[in-house]
Amino acid sequence: MNGTADGRGNASQASLREVNLALIATTAFAAPEPRSRAELAQRTALSRATVSRLVDELVRGEVLAEQERSTAGARGRPAVPLVPSPARFVALGLQVNTSRLTARVVDLTGATVAQHSQAGDLVGSDPAEVLGELGSIASRLMARLPRHQRLAGAGLALPGIVSTPSGRLLRAPNLGWAEVDAAEHLRTALGPVRLQVGNEADLAALSVARARPGVPGANRDFIYVSGEIGIGGAAVRDGAVLRGSHGWAGEIGHVCVDPNGPACRCGANGCLESFAGRRVLLAGAGLPPDGSPHDVLARAGAGDPGTLAALERAADALGTAVSSAVHLLDLPAVVLGGDLAVIGPLIRDRVEGVLARRVISNPWAAVDIVIGSGDPSDAATGAALAELERVVANPAAYLS
């Protein structure tokens, strides 16, 4: 009896196909250099015939693409390197923070193929109005995509505590939002496109942890700290964001660095962001609230005492908060994003000094401080990458 009379054999074959397609796709995407069918067979321990058949399916479905054949120094049939295909699958990354809205379309190579960013002061804004505008931006962007491209999904990054299973924003102190069903506000604009909602810092950290979908970045273990009006954070271990029991881990901006410090928008006192947030730095530099971190750089370059003192306070607070995170998590690096990447070169030495004094393991393993891209919309990229990694992890669900 072959086990197919009740359909179980066919189901088992289909399941095996899905598993093997995922194995081939993840192995091909993660390769530092393009691999041929023969190399994929060697890496996956699947037969060459099986690999060739599955690769053909992934190439037809435009998950993978064949590079020009390499014949140098080879006999017989030349090897065909396989790379991610930019042709068909893309994902939409959306981001709301206190000073801008961003929509960004990313393909399977990690390239941004379309984007729109709109600046504005969104502190104390109405979530329905803001998300309605973001939906309009997303609709216009999707309408301009070539007809052959397929939107694999959409991700939304929000600067606050997000209930990951439901996608509900529970609280965003700096926006002044609470209990917002973001997906509901975007449903009309996105139509049938699946939307995943996540924390802004978690998704920005993913953009650092990946070079492109499925490919590890240069840093795989780090604490991510990003500056804007608030301070966002995430912890990354072996390329995965540590989310905690409820998905709320990494809120380093609300780590207390001085119990007697200034009041924070969250309701506590002495949080990191009350020393290193954008408006605190601008006020210390004698600049208006709508200024930028580049204005702070200019004042510091001119030797303004107030600006230099504000930067020293920010560096001390950042070093104190990061040292606590290092003691708890034993991660070897801190990546500075957003505003902190912009001012990073000015504060790095002082932060390193604080870490040297406060981190007990520093004599044997000093914490590396990495200056990130400074792109204020990194989380939009991360949101798109998270959706594209679903294609890589389960290509069978997208092939038709």
Structural features, described:
Helices cover 40% and strands 22% of the residues. The chain is α/β, with parallel strands linked by helices. It has 3 domains: 12-68, Arc Repressor Mutant, subunit A, CATH 1.10.10; 89-209 and 378-394, ATPase, nucleotide binding domain (Nucleotidyltransferase, domain 5, 2-Layer Sandwich); 219-375, Nucleotidyltransferase, domain 5 (2-Layer Sandwich), CATH 3.30.420.40. The chain is globular.
Strand order of the largest sheet: 5-4-3-6-10
Total domain units: 3
Per CATH, which architecture of the largest domain? 2-Layer Sandwich
Note the gap between the termini: 32 Å
What is the SS-derived class? alpha/beta
Highlighted features:
single chain, 400 residues, alpha/beta, Arc Repressor Mutant, subunit A, Nucleotidyltransferase, domain 5, 12 helices, 17 strands, globular, disordered N terminus, ROK, Sugar kinase, ATPase_NBD, WH-like_DNA-bd_sf
Summarize it.
It holds the Pfam family ROK. With 400 residues, the chain is α/β, with parallel strands linked by helices.
